[in-house]
Amino acid sequence: MKNFDKGWSVWSKRTEKDYTNLPEGNYSFQIKARSNLGDESIITRYSFIVLPPWYKSIWAYVTYGLLFLGFNYLFYRWLKKKFIREKLKYEAEQKRLKYLHQLEMEKSEKEIIALKNEKLESEILGKNSELASVAMHLLQKGELLAKIREELVQLRKSTNDMPSEELKRLIRILNQESKMDKDWDQFAGYFDNTHSDFLKAIKETHPLLSAHELKLCAYLRMNLSSKEIAQLLNISVRGVEISRYRLRKKLQLPTEINLFNYFTEFPTPKKENIGNT
Which end of the chain is more exposed for a tag (fewer CB within 10 A), N or C? Predict the structure, then answer.
């Protein structure tokens, strides 16, 4: 067998030759015979082709190529999806870290705000203390004026002619009240510092309010009783009620609105939540 055997087979009386598992390719089977005398016949040839198995055929290789391309495409799709998943996971992790960072920043800001609040509260307590001191001083002034009135009443009852010594004593007492306006200016300054420029704001909103009415607004904002306001303004409790009525009318407030609540919620230039300072 040409292209398969390395040489001729040994002489034999058999008239057949077996070949198994021939690989694919072109073959030429050659045969010759020899007589008893040793004469050899002409070589007879039979050519044939052994086709490759189906898994080595052209269509098989085309299929392999298509499968390879399909596998590569699927692998590419898988890598792309994996990349997208990793990207989304990375973005989610970045968002989570950003959120945690934001929480930390907010926590730090809240701590800073808390410290500022403590400082502001401390300052407000100090100002309220000064404000209370000034208010108490004004109350004492009111009581002093009430005492003067009592002295005058008693003096009128006791005599028709006012003795010079008594007159001098009353003048000295009245002279002690010459600083009343200065005390009010000091009180107003403390009050505005404590209550976010309340007096300035309400005066700008209601420019027709008198000085007496501005004082009443401040005392109402402090939630003082009518009796305390009467002493501060040196009027009767009834006079306080009349002043409240006139003030409500000038502010054009309906009766169902509480004056203290109105003044507490009154918008001012600095009226912000302490936590937002």
Answer: C
